[in-house]
Amino acid sequence: MELLTIDIESSFGSFTKPESTTGGLLSYRVPPKPAIIGMLGSLLGLSFVDTQKNFKDVKVGIQPLNKIRSKTSVFNSHYGGRAGRMVNIRQEMLVNPRYRIYLDFDNISTNTQVLEKIQENLHEIGIRHPVKNIFDATKEVLRSKSSYYDLYMGRNNFPLEYDLKDIKLIILDETSDVEFETECIVPKEMCSDFRVEEVAKPSQDNPYSLGLTEPRSFKFYILKDLPVGQNERREYNFFQDFIMKSAGSGLKLLVKPLWGKSRYIYMTDPHGKLVVLF
Asked: What is the pTM of this model?
């Protein structure tokens, strides 16, 4: 399989929910699939239309690498108010967002005209090596630590950094009634069953310990209506529900895949943890 894995991070991020009101613009907890596809188009210097055409069949997996934290900031904007009058907008921002993105290019095909355009763009950013297809082009750009357009974490005032990783994934054959631990977000419809359990802690050797534990928030989420599709007017047009636990939350998410869902690819990472590509 033609797979790539990249880590992306920024000081802040925001992936605005379209149903947010002027009372406050809320952010998705992870980058939606259309945002990831847009990032790939920016790497290669493709237009929005060409990005949609050439990356529409890419499959992605998303793994949070930091705890999901957010804060609200207030900024001035002329949108939503009378002409010439500024209004205060409340914007939810993700703090130190960091994710691992898995990409499957197996079903991606590129016509000669688009590939020639990509090759020209690569020359402009100093990559002279000829590329055979869009997978090779993306890999070359990632290796060079460059991009045709600037990359950002949802908003153009949140520039992101990325790092190409060498991680070997193993594709799973259909297996019945097997449970896998996962650090990734997983589509709710692909789970025949799931549960959350607390990570076992080392036993206390202190005989005087009262066995008290520190209170902590419950870091498990159902991500409702996360966008996975976008139309030519840049509107989200396909949504799904996902399950996610926050990284480092002291919890384990255990999932039994529902086999027969052809739209998904089930794989395991080097630690045997489930990665779902959608």
From this structure: 0.89
